[in-house]
Design brief:
29% helix, alpha+beta
Length: 144
């Protein structure tokens, strides 16, 4: 076996192990908890888990971006903003397939609670019978 192939297999093993570790902790995604997630532009964002359903994690995505993964946060300083705001905007309720949320590499910042107001979008979504946002299986596999 040549060196390049060995390095390739080694890198593949590391990526797979990382994904397995992330998947193993998905059962710990507790409603009210804040998680840092990686962004496409190299920054980090914060989400709050609103609810868990079969195969779905509903989150609130805040507009604040951080240059490094935050290890603690004052929830009172998090906001959603509005479309068109110069500082960007968040999303009050975003239902995601668990297999996609895991690819955001969520890391627990702290546990918390969910208010009734924060659940409004979730209730509307749940009553509508809508489904979770999900990338097609081929795109999710490409991200692996």
């Amino acid at each position: 076996m040549n060196v390049r192939r060995s390095i390739g297999f080694g890198l593949l093993a590391i990526v797979m192990a990382t994904l397995c570790v992330a998947c193993a902790h998905h059962e710990d995604w507790e409603p009210g908890s804040l998680y840092s997630v990686g962004g496409d532009d190299g920054t980090f964002a914060v989400v709050k888990v609103l609810a868990r359903d079969s195969g779905v994690v509903s989150v609130r995505l805040y507009r604040e971006k951080f240059p490094a993964r935050p290890s603690r946060i004052d929830p009172a300083r998090l906001s959603l903003g509005q479309v068109g705001d110069a500082e960007g905007f968040g999303i009050g309720h975003l239902p995601l397939a668990e297999r996609d949320f895991v690819l955001w590499f969520p890391v627990l910042i702290q546990k918390g609670t969910v208010s009734g107001d924060e659940m409004e979008g979730y209730r509307i979504w749940k009553e509508s019978g809508a489904v979770a946002f999900s990338s097609p299986p081929s795109e999710a596999a490409d991200a692996d």
